[in-house]
UniProtKB/TrEMBL annotation:
Signal peptide start and end residues: 1-19
PANTHER family referenced in this protein's UniProt entry, alphabetically: GDNF FAMILY RECEPTOR ALPHA-3, GDNF RECEPTOR ALPHA
Region of interest called Disordered, as start-end residue ranges on this chain: 374-395
Annotated membrane topology: Lipid-anchor; GPI-anchor
Domain (GDNF/GAS1) ranges: 25-105, 149-229, 239-333
InterPro entries with a match to the protein in the record: GDNF/GAS1, GDNF_alpha, GDNF_rcpt
Record protein name field: GDNF family receptor alpha-4
GO cellular component: external side of plasma membrane; receptor complex
Amino acid sequence: MGPALLLGLLLSRAGDLMALPSSDCVMAEQLCLSDSTCNATYRTLENCALAKTRLLSLDHDSRVRCLNAELDLGNSSLLHCKCQRRMKRQEHCLRIFWTVHSSMTDGYFNLETSPYENPANEEHWKTDYNKLAALVSGSQLAGDATNPCLRATHVCNLSKKCFRLRTDYASICTKGAGSEDVCDRRKCHRGLRNFFEKVPEDFTKTILFCPCQDELCGERRRKTIVPDCSFQYNTKPNCLWLLDSCLEDHICKSRLADFQQNCQPVDMSPDGCFLHNHAACLQAYMGMIGTPMTPNYVSNSSVEVSLWCTCENSGNQKEKCDQILGMFESNKCLENTIWSQMHLKQMALERQEDLLYSSSLSFQGDSASTSLSSAMSQVAEGKTQRDSSKQSSMPMASSVFSGAATSWPSLALFLPLLLSPH
Ligand SMILES: *[C@@H]1O[C@H](CO)[C@@H](O)[C@H](O)[C@H]1NC(C)=O
Ligand SMILES: *[C@@H]1O[C@H](CO)[C@@H](O)[C@H](O)[C@H]1NC(C)=O
Ligand SMILES: *[C@@H]1O[C@H](CO)[C@@H](O)[C@H](O)[C@H]1NC(C)=O
Ligand SMILES: *[C@@H]1O[C@H](CO)[C@@H](O)[C@H](O)[C@H]1NC(C)=O
């Protein structure tokens, strides 16, 4: 069997995964290690992954061996496993995922398959958000009601967890600001990830995506993530450098794959999104915050977001660099997702049609809208399922052949690499 055929098989398998509920990679690994055949195959894959992190270029035979090992996993639950966004041993889980899928990570970043479970299959906790928000809109802060970002912070302050984790990252990220020594960016990033992972989305979403009418509010919104420490460097690095540092890190690589999958733009769609899952796209965007590829608002006066990097002086890599930057700067799906989050209230009243695409409503837990929104999100999910089964024969290549997401790093870039005898 030639490598092209092998790859085709792999891809068609990967396609089936999208619709199935998947198992947890940590459990799947344990299961595999207790079976001697699976164990041996898994060890081979570990070596393949190891060789790649050491940047040893694999010869043709090794590539085929690694691909074969992936195929040998057959219908083992390992091949289908995913990780939860809020799980305990997340990094361990992600390492397993990338070990199993190491053959897909050759060279360029091309992944559209998220290691994370579809948010619709994840548990969502009930929160006291609406109760606390009602307290704030009650009376004492009437003057502040004009600044939705300030108001969102007030609501956060009323929740013990939100208050604590926000204070945590704020103090880490502002340490050293203004003085000679620089802040500890890694710690700041960890603090931010902690905040966005552990605080219920009702709080984090309203803080980060508060709708602003003026620049004072916009400045507060832009500064939510303490950009002086978490976002800006002295000079803007090249976006490809930023990408490289992201791919070296299991968390960042995973978040980027999740972002690429869930915020993938297409032209011929009312909301600009391939998957029409605004909740998942929003979550994926927030997942990038606290990674080396942290995005943020570009100014106090707009909702445009970008990365802190440039594609100047990229030479013959300019096109690829623009693709990376374009995922954030000119991504219709992301723009529409952020816009509809900011206008959620008005939209719910005025434009029921658009609700079809905003299943994020189902996470609001607002008792008044629960039944409506869950009905809506069922429709939206049904649509997503159909869309993913339609492309199931070749999910990663679909964007190439449909011409839909031409501005995205695509499989076309990576096929020649994988198959070239080295
Ligand atoms: C799995 O592989 C490791 C390393 O090759 C070996 O030490 C271990 O005994 C194997 N376990 C089983 C259950 O085969
Ligand atoms: C796939 O799973 C079924 C049981 O679910 C098993 O009987 C079969 O042998 C497995 N096939 C492979 C190739 O592992
Ligand atoms: C929230 O709490 C922080 C930390 O005590 C405080 O600095 C801030 O002013 C509070 N913000 C609001 C809007 O209540
Ligand atoms: C807006 O952003 C700039 C920095 O880019 C800052 O100097 C300015 O004070 C901000 N605030 C307002 C209200 O314009």
